[in-house]
Design a protein that fits this description.
Layout (H helix, E strand, L loop, with lengths): L17 E2 L3 E7 L21 E5 L4 E2 L7 E4 L10 E2 L2 E7 L3 E6 L5 E7 L5 E6 L13 E5 L4 E4 L5 E3 L3 E7 L5
Parallel strand pairs: 2-14
Antiparallel strand pairs: 1-4, 3-10, 5-12, 6-7, 7-8, 8-9, 9-10, 11-14, 12-13
């Protein structure tokens, strides 16, 4: 018998989650807020929903290190230029909740919650946004996609490349 000498090197390559193109969208309507006018106006969307839901799970592939968890990246820029009653929105971002208010400590305008285990998001409209065109039922679309990220079981994180968008339909006086 002969004994082998030397070393055997084994390299284990860690896989990472992967972001994939796609979209998850929803629509809410300011008609559903207090004093909203729910009688259809030109350009109005059906209903008066204040809540929209969807999922970011389809925007990611996990690889071998399952399961994925989902969160917001508080280091990414938030939507700019949005106002409520002419007051610029202020945001508070945690791992799984974005809260927008009309100025620091002001009235709540919306929340965007993200379930870390399932990737299900829930947008809740709580106040009005100022829309660009007066006298119309125009829309504002907010894309939260750049804020969304997924982390695999051993801590590898990837940012979404897809769209996570909520459209807010205006309430127009009658």
């Amino acid at each position: 018998t002969v004994a082998a000498t030397g070393t055997v090197a084994v390299t284990i390559d860690d896989d990472m989650p992967r972001a994939v193109e796609g979209s998850s969208t929803g629509t809410v309507d300011e008609d559903g807020l207090a004093n909203g006018i729910t009688i259809g106006q030109p350009g109005d969307v059906a209903g008066a929903a204040l809540t929209a839901t969807g999922s970011v799970a389809s925007l990611f592939q996990s690889g071998a290190d399952t399961p994925l968890t989902y969160s917001f990246n508080p280091g990414v820029a938030l939507p700019v230029g949005l106002t409520s009653n002419q007051i610029a929105l202020t945001y508070v971002v945690t791992a799984n909740l974005i809260t927008a208010t009309a100025g620091p400590g002001g009235a709540a305008v919306f929340t965007m919650a993200l379930d870390p285990a399932t990737g299900v998001w829930t947008f809740t409209l709580q106040g009005v946004l100022d829309h660009a065109t007066a006298g119309t039922e125009d829309d504002i679309t907010i894309n939260f996609g750049p804020l969304v990220q997924a982390t695999d079981d051993d801590g590898d994180t990837v940012a979404a490349t897809g769209t996570v968008a909520v459209t807010i339909d205006d309430d127009m006086p009658r």
